[in-house]
């Protein structure tokens, strides 16, 4: 290493050396660059006047609460989102890339959506596969795109007249979002969206958006009371089924071990017996 | 060394066991996921393949599969997921085997056999092909394919990849836009390097012919209307052939599709709608069809289900019944916020047809701007550029200035020219003054959701009495939090509503009514604007409202000099079987002071009571419809000199909120000045910095007004008496 620390030689190859102050400068520079990028991106989102439109449809029956959420990305936000989907960067969105994106969306939805009735959380279960309407598979396009998610929950037995259904949503929270909510009662149920239920139009990074629906008349079906019990229980207790399945899975794993071990032993035994002098 | 070898051996065994187990589990989990997707598509898109008696059971089975999948996913054990799936799929397979349209495919070395032979009859121009490919013993596999025969570069062949492990593969091919009569498709099944090919014929039935005429309930003559047409066989929505193409007028802004996803309350909430300018005729597949026709909230939507048989002609005439004609009550509807280019007669005809279809009397067609550019060009502004067709009027206005991270969006109506100067873009009062000088009206957009920081400019210019109205309804929602904050400080603001298409769903989905009283036909748009200026409005997407305090209408002032009782009368009404008011409330200074509610059977809710004039207040009516719709009036202002009609006990907090908004504006300007000094300063920051001093003067003037209010609050302490109801 030279005394000025600029060059290091290892195994005959010369590397540029870095001193402590260089590290600091590098880190500081990186931090400044990062801050600049983050702030400029955020500002760009806001200043372009473009936002994601989020429409939530909630349908309540005595047996099920169906929830559809549609996200529409207008052109300026659609292009960066399409770039994100375009894994290989070839400018075209392939079925594989779309599939991977939708799997990611579904997975994120499970973490970023929460449904509760009168403050008690109930499980939100995917009803249909998420759908992506691109208009065109090109990345560089002026076309908007839309994502649609479908979920359902079993109407919990404690849903009665006056109950409040609350859906929290923090999907795409890094985008400015215009949320809206519509609700309908079915099979004798009457519901209404609460005033201000859609929350404000949000800026990137804003708090969770929520939809509120009040049950005006009707109750959960008594015949269906037991239907969602297992899912409710799973949510509440940290789920027994996990333990049950783990046990089953463990049997599968150790069973495989035993089979392989037995096979190994058998092979060794056969090889041992096949030796002319009995081994040793 | 021996011990090491032994341990290595054990580890190798464990790793191998893990690999075998994991591989098996992952494979099974993937199959389970495929099975789930397969059943979902069947249930959602092709439930018609199953006998009607089995459809509900299949839907419920699908939910149970989804439920079990969710449970097992939480267990994070793919094996468990598979087992749960298998259990439910056992009930689905017999249903699949029972489908009469099922094609059984068997592979034998290089030969392929598809049974039963002969063409497959589709129910119409869309449908499904379902193959069960049996390739020796093994597990079940699932494949989903789509074939749109009207897509760009449409093909008539498809290829399904079969698993090398054999077993049964279920293949579902969703077909769209299949031509009338016989069509031959080339089916290919690939297994490794082997390709099995066979021709598959499908036939579609001969279509019927559907003619639809929609009549105005006012004139009995054909009228534009909003239409939704569904082929019930697969639930697909179909476009009427003469549906108006709005996309070019939307300039790719917002949701520029001509299929409008309306934000409507009630059963028809999720629907998409086409605007048809008049009667239409089209070829349709045989089967059951559902048509729904809407003409805005004053009409009861018509839904009809009918059956079309092959080669038949079916003529339908509908006359959606008007359950109320608000003109007869002196109220005329309007939409304060409609975007759309009008540079030709065709453009004007299209938007006029939409206004007539939704029965909205006056549309404020706004040219939109931001600091960079404008959108939705208009031929011109002023009376000569209004478009009038009987009692329907398109009047050019503007949505500008419009800043998103700074001060919010503004609207103007009845202007003579567009008011826009980027060198004064952040000085909204300049625009408000110009608009007022032209005889126009100014207001804030998106107040319902406090969007784009609209509270900031409201805090600057509402105290200076620069604006007329605030948009309280949009996207089917009513939002009053910010509105009440300003009313509670004793500022008058007229309630307005605007659909904001193409961001909103459809013209008039929320609307404002202005009270004109008896009008000669055609009514005068100038009278409508004058009524809005007076604040004689209410907003709604369902219930109709009437509200009086003594003889005063919304927007009016009732001046009292002494303590006396005032008569409050409110009425909300709807139509039995369509929408009825479920709650009527009287709001005084933001609090509900009286309300009445009923079950869905009552068509009308009334309140008639006395209230003490006390020290003055604002008072309004609010209603809720049985379908979740909302309505809200502009307040009546009860004033008692020298007191303000404000929420006295909350004034300090309310002033603090406004001062905080002003501080945010100051911070914005300071940040813009900092950014403007940098090399990479943006246009917005540069302009905001340049206009910063002028904006700060306005902030300072507003601050002085709030200080004055604070002093008045102190002085009023000794003059006010407790409120009695």
Backbone shape of chain B = globular
> Structural class of the secondary elements of chain B?
alpha+beta
Helix/strand order of chain A, N-terminal first: EEHEEHHEEEEEEEEHH
> What percent of residues of chain A adopt helix (DSSP H or I)?
25-40%
| Strand line-up of the largest beta sheet of chain A | 7-8-4-3-10
Helix percentage range of chain B: 25-40%
Overall form of chain A:
flat
Average of the residue pLDDT scores of chain B: 92
Largest sheet of chain A: 5 strands, mixed
Task: Kindly report how far apart the N and C termini of chain B lie.
Answer: 96 Å
Largest sheet of chain B: 13 strands, mixed
Taking the alpha carbons of the first and last residues of chain A, their distance comes to: 57 Å
Model description:
With 280 residues, chain A is an alpha+beta fold. Chain A has helices at residues 20-47, 75-85, 95-112, 229-237, 240-274; strands at 7-10, 13-16, 52-60, 64-73, 113-117, 120-122, 125-133, 145-154, 164-169, 177-185, 190-193, 209-217. In chain A, strands 7-8-4-3-10 form a five-stranded mixed sheet. The longest helix of chain A is centred in the C-terminal third of the chain and has 35 residues, at 240-274. Chain A is flat. Chain B has 725 residues and is α+β, with helices and mostly antiparallel strands. In chain B, the strands form seven sheets. In chain B, strands 19, 20, 21, 22, 23, 30, 31, 33, 35, 36, 38, 39 and 40 form a 13-stranded mixed sheet that branches. In chain B, strands 11, 12, 13, 14, 16 and 17 form a six-stranded antiparallel sheet that branches. In chain B, strand 20 and strand 21 (374-375) form a beta hairpin. In chain B, helix 7 crosses helix 10 (651-677). At the A-B interface, helix 1, strand 3, strand 4, strand 7 and strand 10 of A face helix 1, helix 2, helix 3 and strand 28 of B.
